[in-house]
Amino acid sequence: MVYQANPARYESMEYRRCGRSGLKLPAISLGLWHNFGDSTLLDNSRQLLYRAFDSGITHLDLANNYGPPPGSAEENFGRILREDFLPYRDELIISSKAGYTMWDGPYGDWGSRKYLISSLDQSLKRMGLEYVDIFYHHRPDPETPLEETMRALDTVVRQGKALYVGVSNYPAELAAQAIDILNDLGTPCLIHQPRYSMFERWVEGGLLNVLQEKGVGSIAFSPLAGGQLTDRYLDGIPADSRAASGSKFLNADQLTEEKLEKVRKLNAIAQRRGQKLSQMALAWVLRGDKVTSVLIGASKTSQIDDAVGMLANRHFTAEELAEIEAILV
């Protein structure tokens, strides 16, 4: 069967301008971090992409090292793109990144011009694309001059390999410097991708203000704190959960009784709002419109449905925000 996208896919999604650019992103974006590698059934990955696009999620976020193994998420996405989504390429925002270890030797990591441009060339081949819509530097490099890294981002835009560029995991002061360098080069920074959730709020210490002042958009990754801000752990740690599996991204030590009690109190507020805790957590990250989009991961189509369902109740009263703040402090 040839995939036919839902003709009503744009009716329920909210699209938000990314900084002062001409680009709008969906309020919810899909990350292809863990559920598109070779260890995942390709048909499940395909169904996730179908459901996302049919729901108006046009932004698909990848990186060179996504998998596992590294590179396999881009390869599998490229196959699904070829087989199902080529007619819709111009309706998609496809992003990739480089900055973490991708291949052996001194040129397969961090932020040199050599690494970034080589990595993007490899990513384009894996996905079968002539260009990505957004290319990020994935993390700051403490040794490479920032000017070199930003010049590499400027170069890939001028070469036509990326339409926009961004940074990820940059602290506020370094982000401001990177944005200024890119502006001077004539290739504005479109977006910053930081980790942000109710349980990890470092961006409120200055980064969000920097981005607003400089007209740069933002997309929050791990908005559910690795699954902590869901109903998964309301009654403790299930034996089949990520926290019980020894995952380096969420372990049982993080889920203290104090943390679980906060989750239960937050869940009670979500229930009063008529939504799931995960939905309220996503809406909270988008509160105040300082964040352009929330980046979700999904292993089941129902998780995408839940995220999109958040849009039916995205706003908070002042009383709700105060009650949530009292729990989080």
Description:
The longest helix has 17 residues, at 257-273. Helix content is 38%, strand content 14%. Helix 4 packs across helix 5. The protein has helices at 42-54, 72-85, 113-127, 146-158, 172-185, 207-214, 257-273, 277-286, 301-309, 318-328, and strands at residues 15-17, 24-26, 28-31, 59-61, 93-98, 132-137, 162-168, 189-193, 217-221, 293-296. By secondary structure, it is an alpha/beta fold. The chain has ten helices and ten strands. The strands form two sheets. It has an eight-stranded parallel barrel, surrounded by six helices. It has a two-stranded antiparallel ribbon with strand order 1-2.
Write out the strand line-up for the largest beta sheet, numbering strands in chain order. 3-4-5-6-7-8-9-10
Helix content range: 25-40%
Q: Based on CA inertia axes, which overall geometry fits? A: globular
Give the CA-CA distance, first to last residue: 52 Å
Q: What name is given to the CATH topology?
A: TIM Barrel
Detail the poorly predicted runs.
Answer: none
Short note summarizing the structure:
By secondary structure, the protein is α/β, with parallel strands linked by helices. The chain has helices spanning 42-54, 72-85, 113-127, 146-158, 172-185, 207-214, 257-273, 277-286, 301-309, 318-328; strands at residues 15-17, 24-26, 28-31, 59-61, 93-98, 132-137, 162-168, 189-193, 217-221, 293-296. The strands form 2 sheets. An 8-stranded parallel barrel has the order 3-4-5-6-7-8-9-10, surrounded by 6 helices.
